[in-house]
Amino acid sequence: MVDWTVAQMELLVFDLDGTLYEEQAHFTYYARCLQEMLPLERQADFWQDYQNMQSGTHIALIGKIYDIKRDLVLTVEPLMKRVQAVHCWNGEPLPQSKWPSEYQAPIELRYGEFLGIGDRWILATTAALHQGLTNGYPAYQKTKLYLASPDFMMRKTPGLKEALARYQGTKKIVLLSNSDEDAAHEILEKLDLHSYFDWLIPRAGKPMETKNWLQKVLQTYQIQPEHAISIGDNLFNEVLPAIELGMKSIYIYDGKMEFTHPSLIQVETLANYPF
What we know:
This protein has 275 residues and is α/β, with parallel strands linked by helices. 34% of the residues lie in helices and 16% in strands.
């Protein structure tokens, strides 16, 4: 049972994309960019997988971990990181007797090895990795340029600007993003939110570096974890690392989530949360 509110927190750490605005068309744009990078004979399969993942009918769902090297999908207990089930890409379960010995220990996310499927960005990334695309960063960069361009009309989150203005000066407000600095500034300008952040941290290296950055922010402002909150749309990037540190978290996700925790609130959009 949640017995806290954002108003009680002293530190607010926000993600950027998928968090500070309502639009989701960029996920499709990103998926199309990845699709174009694949060989022609793999593009249709990629798109079908991505559509199935979006609809929740594929085994690779948000909240799972993708073993890139073995092309396996892991169901893992979120905080203890213990493997609970293993499936092949086609959905067939892998008997525990055939699990790699590495699965007996807690799974830690690592570049090029274990990818946490934490949001819709990663759904497309995972589908592309399965099809053999080893470097989708150009598609990510292209999408970031699209986000910052006049062609992308961001829908502002109702009430968010007013909430940030109300908290300005009484709470520390930080932006922790994987975007580069120029792209982050451009998006904040488009949203008219630029003046409300005390600290903008770009290229944060989430999720591997999330806990390090959160600890640095807490130490910089001399705030205890229980008085701080991380707000974002990626379970692995913003939510779980914060809870592990003793912080609170708001997870922006419109799907079903079995994971619950006293320090966690799930909302479909920040517009639905009474700041």
